[in-house]
Write a structure and sequence with these properties.
By secondary structure, the chain is α/β, with parallel strands linked by helices. The protein is built from 21 helices and 25 strands.
Length: 651
């Protein structure tokens, strides 16, 4: 039996999961479910990354031990994955003893190979990435991923002889693994190949400025750098470092599904560590694109994340799973918006699958006394369409084109709907009664929907199981195997249950009106008044102002030099702002979206000539400008290029 081992990255536990985390986990789950459905022996791992500077900073701010932060947030990820039907076989935390044992073992092996040495280290460091960047990779001095100012750091570190493995890595990129490219898609393979060809520098793999992590064996005062620590989870979860290596021997090497921002760690550093330790390298690194918000990667650090809660509450888990898989061309970036979600929901699920299923089941139930047809039909357009759709669906999954796999389901449902329209069974039953021909027409439509549900199962398993139930089939999406995709398995004379619409059509105007109302109710609370400076700007429907009125505003660039959340307020943030040579206190309703660490050292646009006002007992001498995200009502601050001097006039 063929075996596959899929992994997601392990996620930082310094905040709640967002759509970016969810996407990676859902697509990995979709792949795992597909290959299980194909009859393969599949193991699926996810987990949480609980060491490093980011968690230590959150813990220090809260005045608690780092493990307290980790213990609080790790269950959040577990619970969300359970809610979304994620079929992982294991969940690893890097604070577990089994993980530490594996990290110590791989370090022992790398040390035995002579690939560690200690030296002074300095470079440009992004605390959010927990990574050093060459100066050429910075964008105006900022981290290329998060856009925050990189810091020059110096310390003594343990180094890994990464430069030694350049030729072997290039050979790996050239030959691939088991006849497949080591990195997918090709554009990402070219990216890491270019990086290695430009020359590798040895890699810092320990820290001495932080203590939260695994102590580096044999190097007192050093902790294992979070990326060496984190990457080893893929094998420690299989028992590497323990006496029981049965899972490791059965499933390793694995297939890593990751976002493109961590490609270098997985496709360069990780295989080099494994080569040094004398261990097998991964089968493949599959790198997807980013969900973007405001043309930027979603990230808690940049404050532009989308949480799944509202969409799930309104439309259900599988509606969001379907959108994540079907709306992004796998490997490329895509923009997330509620408008696009609703459009896809209505087109594919409400009007598409839901409406077609309701029509087909009701007409058959009415014609045959609440049962499925009593005769089969193997010669019809739906059968041909189903065979073609299954072939396209299989090809798409095998080449990681998950959006094309979803499109194959959509196409089959459309063909079934067209078949119903062309055959007009409601007219035939009135004109001819219940004939063998009517049985065959309804068999074709219901059997076509059964096949569509089998194809839908890896993407939206709960929905697939419900479609089976409505077709009179006692079957779970988890139980499917290749023979289930073969035409001709709809049970005859089976009871068809009555059921409400599978996906009720969404009224976009009503949905957005309810969201706007909740935003207005929240932002008009007394403490939230300053959080919506955009509300002070007239909309296009209001009276336009002359230029002289606009010039009355004194808009200035200011640098936040200190910030703290105001006690007893959910939203108010007290900021100490330097505008030119002047330092003043400004209060803004942004604390629910931004932390103090995200503000300090960054430059924003402020209204400098606003009359002072007291908010929760603190006098605010100015206003910070922000846009309001239409989908969430959250503020998005207007960031300024770090090169612009504090005090510069905005006009």
């Amino acid at each position: 039996m063929a075996r596959r081992y899929f992994t997601t990255p392990i996620y930082y536990v310094n905040d709640r999961p967002h759509i970016g985390h969810l996407y990676t986990t859902v697509v990995t789950d979709t792949l795992a479910r597909y290959f299980r459905q194909q009859g393969e022996d599949v193991r699926f791992l996810t987990g949480t990354d609980e060491h490093g500077q980011n968690i230590a900073k959150v813990a220090k701010k809260e005045g608690v031990a780092p493990i307290v932060v980790a213990d609080r947030h790790a269950p959040t990820f577990r619970n969300l994955w359970k809610e979304f039907g994620i079929s992982n076989d294991d969940f690893i935390r890097t604070t577990e003893p089994r993980h530490r044992a594996g990290v110590e073992e791989i370090i022992r092996r790398i040390d035995a190979a002579g690939d560690f040495y200690t030296a002074g280290h300095e470079g440009w460091y992004c605390a959010n990435c927990e990574a050093f960047y060459p100066e050429k990779d910075l964008v105006l001095g900022n981290c290329p991923v998060h856009g925050f100012k990189a810091e020059w750091q110096r310390e003594e570190n343990v180094f890994f002889r990464l430069s030694k493995y350049g030729p072997r890595l290039l050979e790996l990129f050239e030959r691939g693994v088991e006849g497949k490219p080591f990195v997918f898609p090709e554009s990402r393979l070219n990216e890491v190949r270019s990086f290695v060809e430009s020359g590798l520098k040895d890699l810092s793999v320990s820290r001495t400025t932080i203590s939260w992590g695994i102590p580096f064996p044999g190097r007192p005062g050093h902790v294992v750098y979070v990326w060496l620590d984190a990457l080893v989870n893929y094998i420690t979860a299989l028992g590497f470092g323990s006496r029981d290596l049965s899972l490791y021997e059965r499933y390793w090497p694995g297939i890593h599904v990751i976002g493109k921002d961590i490609l270098r760690f997985h496709a360069v550093y990780w295989p080099a560590f494994l080569m040094s330790a004398g261990l097998p390298i991964p089968r493949q690194v599959v790198s997807h694109g980013w969900w973007l918000r405001d043309a930027r990667k979603m990230s808690k650090s940049t404050g532009n994340v989308v949480r799944p809660d509202d969409l799930v509450a309104a439309f259900g888990v599988d509606a969001l799973r379907w959108h994540l898989v079907s709306a992004m061309s796998f490997g490329q970036d895509a923009n997330f918006s509620d408008e696009d979600f609703l459009a896809g929901y209505n087109a594919d699920l409400a009007n598409g699958l839901g409406n077609t299923l309701s029509r087909a089941v009701k007409m058959a139930s009415d014609a045959f006394g609440g049962k499925t047809p009593a005769e089969t039909c193997d010669d019809n357009e739906v059968r041909t369409a189903a065979i073609d759709a299954v072939a396209a669906w299989t090809s798409a999954f095998e080449s990681y084109r998950l959006h094309d796999a979803a499109a194959a389901v959509r196409t089959l449902v459309t063909r079934i709907d067209g078949y119903i329209a062309s055959r007009e069974p409601w007219k035939k039953v009135k004109a001819e009664g219940v004939t063998p021909a009517l049985h065959r027409i309804h068999y074709a439509t219901l059997e076509g929907l059964r096949v569509a549900a089998c194809m839908l199962a890896p993407i939206a398993p709960g929905t697939a199981t419900e479609v089976f139930r409505r077709l009179g089939i006692a079957r779970s999406a988890e139980d499917l195997r290749p023979p289930d995709l073969v035409w001709g398995q709809l049970p005859l004379n089976a009871s068809l249950p009555q059921a409400p619409p599978l996906f009720p059509r969404a009224d976009a105007k009503e949905y957005f009106a309810s969201k706007e109302k909740s935003v207005v109710d929240e932002t008009t609370a007394p403490e939230a008044a300053p959080s919506s400076p955009s509300q002070q700007i007239p909309s296009s429907s209001e009276t336009k102002i002359p230029i002289d009125d606009f010039l009355k505003l004194d808009l200035r660039v200011g640098e936040v030099i200190a910030a703290e959340k105001i006690e007893k307020s959910k939203k108010l943030m007290k900021m100490t702002v330097k505008i030119g040579e002047e330092v003043r206190t400004i209060v803004g309703g942004i604390a629910a979206t931004y932390t103090a660490e995200q503000l300090v050292g960054r430059k924003f646009v402020f209204v400098a000539n606003l009359a002072p006002a007291k908010l929760m007992g603190v006098e605010s001498d100015g206003m910070i400008l922000a846009a309001t995200l239409p989908e969430t009502g959250e503020p998005s601050l207007l960031m300024v290029d770090p090169a612009v001097p504090s005090g510069a006039k905005v006009k």
